[in-house]
Design brief:
Belongs to the UPF0319 family. Keywords: Signal. The chain contains five helices and eleven strands, in the order αββββββββαββαβαα. It is an alpha+beta fold. It has one domain. Strands 4-1-8-9-10-11 form a six-stranded mixed sheet. Strands 2, 3, 5, 6 and 7 form a five-stranded antiparallel sheet that branches.
Length: 210
């Protein structure tokens, strides 16, 4: 039984001890404002439009931001409300990317798009994992937060009660189910282990952190 516990939980335990990270590519038209309810600055773990995230599930607050130059040399910057994207479990060492789904092609389209942008999360094989549509923000909230800053105070991020439900792909759903099954198997192995077997495993686990 000790061997089964070690074999089944070992990789999971080691990955929990060590810092694990994934790389997320973010285009210019998508601004990251918060990660896991923590406000971030524009340069937080970011280089060349890439940021580092912990492996596993993350909750990312983003907003659409589009710059449009007009023929008379005037310009407009259109910004959406915050869209909260809950990722599936991200695999350590893999690359992911955010992108606009059905992005606007001109200023008129962008004026409508900013009210309800759609953000997609893709894996390194360009497979869509989840898409999240934003909720149309109230005028009073927009006027209070749409400043020149690319960041928001945590108190300015509105609740996403009216945000549409995320759409996960079947591939993501199956991966989540497999992860849940694996976790349940590990729990059952621990529950059925004797006191001596649990002590032996904890001794082994302590050795891995040295």
């Amino acid at each position: 039984m000790v061997f089964k516990i070690v074999a089944g939980i070992g990789a999971f335990a080691i990955s929990s001890i060590a810092f694990s990270a994934v790389t997320l590519s973010v285009p210019e038209e998508i601004k990251i404002v918060a990660i896991n309810d923590q406000e971030i600055g524009t340069n937080f773990l970011r280089s060349n439009n890439k940021i580092k995230l912990n492996a596993g599930t993350n909750v990312i607050g983003v907003r659409y931001s589009g710059y449009y130059q007009h023929p008379d040399n005037s310009h407009d910057i259109l910004k959406s409300g915050v869209v909260t994207v809950k990722t599936p479990a991200l695999t350590d060492g893999n690359n992911y990317s955010l992108a606009l789904i059905n992005p606007p092609q001109d200023f008129d389209q962008a004026e409508k798009y900013k009210d309800e942008p759609i953000i997609g999360l893709y894996d390194q094989n360009k497979q869509l994992l989840v898409q999240q549509a934003g909720a149309k923000a109230s005028k009073s909230w927009l006027s209070s937060v749409f400043s020149d800053s690319d960041t928001l105070d945590a108190t300015q991020i509105p609740p996403q009660a009216h945000q549409p439900a995320p759409i996960y792909t079947s591939q993501t759903t199956q991966a989540t189910l497999n992860s849940n099954v694996s976790t349940q198997t590990l729990i059952q192995s621990w529950q059925h282990a004797t006191k001596q077997e649990r002590q032996a495993f904890m001794t082994w686990l302590a050795e891995q952190s040295n």
